[in-house]
Amino acid sequence: MRKTVSVLLVCMLAAVLFLSGCAKKTGDTGPIQIALQAPITGDYAYEGQMAKQSVEVATELINKAGGVLGRQIAVTVVDDGSNPKDSAIAAQKAVSLKVVAVIGSYGSSVTEPAEDIYEKNKMVSVGYGCTALRLTVDKKPNYFFRTCGRDDAQGLFFAKYAVETMGAKRIAIMHDNSTFAKGVAEEAKKALQPYVDAGKCEIIYYDAVTPGEKDFSAAVTKLRNTQPDVWYYTGYYTEAGLLVRQARDAGLTCPFIGGNAAINDDFIKIAGIDVAKGCLMTQEPLVTDVTTAISEQFRTLYKEKFGDVPSSPWPVYAADALYAIVGAIKNANSIESDAIATAMHTNMTGVEGVTGAIKFTAIGDREDVPYKMYEVTADGKYVVHQQ
Amino acid sequence: MGITDNILKRIGLGKPSGDQPVTFWSKNRGWLLLAITGAVFAAYPFLPFISDYWIDVAFFVGVYALLGLSLNIVLGEVGLFDLGHTAFYAIGAYVTAILNTTLHIPIIVLLPLSALIAAGFAYLVTSPVIHLKGDYLCIVTIGIGEIVRLTMINNPFNLTGGPNGINGIGGPNLFGLAINSSTQFYFYTWIIIGVIVFGLIRLQHSRIGRAWNYIREDATAAEASGVDVRSYKLLAFVLGAAIAGMAGNIYASKQMSISPGSFTFIESSLLFCIVLLGGLGSIPGSILGAVVVVVFPEVFRQFASYRLLFFGLALMLMMIFRPGGMWPRKREGTGLDGLGIRGLPRNDEDLILLGKPDPAILKPATTAVVRGVRLPPVTVPMDEEMLLQTHGVTLKFGGLTAVNNFDLNVRTGKITSLIGPNGAGKTTLFNMITGIYKPTSGQIDFLGRDITGLKPHTIISYGIARTFQNIRLFPSLTCIENIMSGPHCHARSGTWAAVMHTVAEVREERDIVATAAYRLDEVGLWSYRNELAKNLPYGKQRYLEIARALATAPHLLILDEPSSGLNDKESEDLMVLLQSLVKEGFTLLLIEHDMQVVMGISDWVAVMDMGQKIAEGLPKDVYNNQRVIEAYLGKEDD
Amino acid sequence: MATFFEQLINGLTIGSFYALVALGYSMVFGVMKLINFAHGDLFALGSYLGYTLLIASSSWVTVHFGLWGGMAIAMLFAFSGIGLAGVLMERVAYRPVYPAGRLSLVVSALGMSIFLQNGIMAIWGARPQAYPAAVVPSTRFSLLGLPVTSLQVVILLISFTLMLAIWFIVEKTTFGAAIRATALDRSTATLMGIDVRVVIFFIFALGPALGGIAGVMNGMYYRAISFNMGWTYGLKAFTATILGGIGNIPGAMIGGLLLGLMESLFAGYVSGAWKDVFVFFILIVVLIWRPTGLLGEKTAEKV
Amino acid sequence: MATVLAIKNLVVNYGAVEALKGVDVELGEHDIVAVLGANGAGKTTLLKSISRIQSIKRGSIALKGLDLATVPAFRLAGLGIAHVPEGRHVFATLTTEENLNLGAYGVRSMPAGKELEKTKEWIFSLFPILKERRKQLAGTLSGGEQQMLAIGRGLISKPHVLLLDEPSLGLAPIIVQGIFRVIRQIHEEEGVSILLVEQNARKALGVARYGYILELGKIAIEGDASDLKNDERVRAAYLGGSKVNC
Fold first, then answer.
1. Fewest 10 Å CB contacts: which of B384, B432, B442, C55?
2. Are the CB atoms for B369 and B402 separated by under 8 Å?
């Protein structure tokens, strides 16, 4: 008796496995719903919270200008807590909210599970801080895009700059074992390989520091002893600031080049201007260097609302993601996912974001992200380095 | 059926006891409730207000319930302080990811495989550290968790994909049915949980589950009652790791990509909270804990940056207002039914009688088998009269000689007493005989076998049981459960038998409870069988401890100051009991300070001072020995 | 060789931070048998308190009392603030949970830790903050041929003085004996006329307060502070505590310094990425060899 | 004889269980009173209630007319009550000397110094072995030595009232004799009033002036020690028959 019932029960439940449906999209009145998936809590909370502010500003600007398709837009925030598990739930939440498209998310390994879910649910998502190659290169997604650049582009830019422009022979690369920093570091190493093979330079140091720590004196002493010509650090600005200062204290004098996660006003604060001055950063153009009308408006309103422009470049890409989505909706004249995705792939004429025109490649990467070398000036500003 | 009933009873839905009329409901309560629970689970994803999001939340509740259940074995059942459980979860996930993406082994095949590898890993890393106590084990588990995570990040042999992790993991495929939607994953996961819960409940109510609890309550007493503490601790880690490995497999196949960010110390501490929030050792509690830990932050997701603030607060409040957890496991008052043992006689007298030992068992065995224990062959010339002999036993602690070249002879069927000043080394000698200490030199022979340096749980299965100077019971277990630790060392059923309820296992369980019942009755504590041991008055605790030792069916019973804390009258009652035990066929060895007892019942007395024997003989000779008077007895003033 | 000595000094500096935090862990554990997982977050809070004082007065204290004076005042401020926070924490999060046992206390401590961490984030924001350069003394000089900063020297001096002072109080004074007695047996301590509440108050004030001072020194030395920095330091300090033998005051000091040295030397000579793996590996090996830590008592359990 | 310690109608609960159900006990100046009884009768609870490490439900405990309920527990040592707990409870990882010093911790009138050293010498004269062991960790002492240390630690505060809980528990006969000798000595020479809880009824009644017998939380019998020794009920229940002869 008991066995039969168990078997029956299991069969019943198993049968249910076949019956699963999926949700469908919303109505055509009221504001167009868009979700922002961002790390509001957790390790990258500061980036997520600034992304939220940036998107708020962009939303206000767009709505003031009449919205899109005659409707306003509204953005809901879902927090992914900077971790992959929460990201999957957050993505599913965004899907269940039946939004038109999603902005998000920040880190690559956090974005990845979300990307899969959005892709499966045929929902357009636009990442703004996830730079790992494989999100697009491996997966060739149909509904995923990103407004930020890719690790390899930055790595290549660095390699070229270091060897060809600076003529560095002994190159040190350091990262912090985070998805992002290690990604850029790996790509930089790859990009240097041809030069190494040609005997033009060598990589004399390749190691990681632990993020969240404060004392890197051991690492920089080791680094100093390798006598590098240039030192590339691809991690985040907090550690970058500490590293530069501790390196200078330890007597390491070679030029420092930071990756685009290091560029942040706090880098200068932490390192101290005496040390930060002259440090270089590989970076997409900053919002302050883009002179379009949108950029102007964005900066003004952001300053008005939050006191200062975002201290990091990534939140601006979140705003760009919103501009991209809205532009695609406009060009497609539809809020259907497929139409938006098609527009994003093929028809982005006239779509401008805070950092300029936005176009995507067939696999969803942003076209033409021009990297520039930034330099910290003596008065604590980032300007494009003039060779 | 028994177990379902017991669970229901615990949550207050059990069969009515007494003479209430039997209705359809009361008769089939267990099945009906199981069916209702099943129906609710089955219906959940199809409820109108349940979106895929909530189904996914339920899926993650499932993953965390599995992890909670797996940690509950280690932390809840055995009481091992494990704050690095995520390591096993990570191993399961990475094994799945690596083997699926490189060798394209199907996920469903990897489900048992990742469990197996996680279990093997757990065995390897925990066996050198399993002896560590409390907080020291805790930091080691944290260390293991961190080592695993950092290794994944550092990408050794290009296997783990570094901080990016691994992507492109496939979904499970059940005989042609591909699982990929949220609803399918929901059912897939919860059916697995159902199967595992079934197994875990069976384990909890077997000698294995009880052995874990004995260790949690008092590891030394457990070892002295015949539980192989080390192996059972390892078994807990291995089983826990296996289940966590499965959870890793499920997680990886749902997420399709994994990275080290999912396996941080914070995850481990969340699992810890799940077990504690639910209630230590409680299976439904662990599931409930998972519900809280997963759903709570979801409900507060819109509060964004404040949600973890609330979560932290909630954890503290929970511990303040429900310190035992939300659904603690109740042991007392559920009666013998609560033990989940089948095939017991209907009334108490029959049960007690069933446990009456075969007198042949209590005779010192010249044969090679005693109650299922295969004894090693006789290695020393066997003296029918001498049960135990120590030859020149010496123990040195650093420079201090605690026991010096001591010869002790214990005659079969007699009461031998060891007396001597405090600190003379008597208890140390006992600890050597029972295997807690290993002698520096000398030999201990028992039943014609050299038992020097064997583990306590081995020695006890040969037939030497003991009690402790300071009573050591399993305080939060019932009296009958306490005594059921006695026959443990003679039982043979393993994990699989316990889960499957094999015929031999059922018979063994019945024998265990019957033996315990008989001994409990013998020391007059039958009416206390369902009380927690800690609630017994001191004197009764002494008797309970003696009953526990007797339940191991020993040939030699070693009692360390049994009359300590008893007044003269109570000591006399004790003497009566001890003498009756000798009549039953046991041999007794005592340490005692109460001369009334020593002189009253001993057949032979040995006197120890500063680790050495200063006298031995018949009680009255020893009592009048000048050296003994000087060193130990003194002269009465009055 | 010069590099070796440099790494040695680096290791000592980071080790002295670990040791100060570990000391608080050990003191609280010794008396309460409680692993205060929120201890690291109190350290972070201390950093923020010092930062706020120096910023809020727009360096007023620095301007009026000089760099060192400002530093001293910030440290005193954090010391008393965190001392108070420690006592409050005991009242709110631990005292009501004592009867429930040690495991429940761990959960409460984890809850407190999450609460504090996110509380700091709610007050000071998620962005890391930096101690302004203007308030940090940064004279550099050469000591025995090694380049050191005056701040480094002062930090080492203060840390060692504090450690010695605590060691003296606990091991050599009658009150210290009272603390140790309370740790062993609370009700018998009461019979001796020891006011257990005073001891607990003292422990929960002083232990975290040491962390508060370490927090300010840490902020000054590295300048950057973030709301989640407590986790890392908490975990490292806990490791140090266990390494030395938990509940043992000199053990915590030695454990902390040793941990700093190991990290520094391994990162300096082998690999930064594998540093923590190495540290935990060594810890496990030490525990296999000495199950109660380096200075833990080797007494067998009495049965 | 003037009353030093007066306990009236003492009721103590452990959860729902009443451990003491209205107990009256008196201890006079320069007096030894024994409290006997079976396990779980409430003897230890009585002593713990006096020194306030056990909270009481009802009743009063007065030291020379001072209601002890108004005084925090840790002050009692300073008021002249010393409690030597059951099971010795020496501080195992402190040295013998540190243990002794702590005994005087609650006594403000005894600053560390000459006075303390003098009292310590007196303790050493009572228990010479402790002097040999003064630098040794208390946990490494033998059971008998620990009991001596526990008593010495109680005496070092020069108490008026000494509460002794099971001083003979688990000790060799020769040690028990020694301890009872010291009990008698401090009573006779120093005039300390002693409330003695014992299992060993024979010994306790041998040294006490007056005795109480507790049964299930109530005083069942009380009377002069000499009378109790010959009381039939006491003999049957507590002294045991003389089935054993040696």
1. B384
2. no
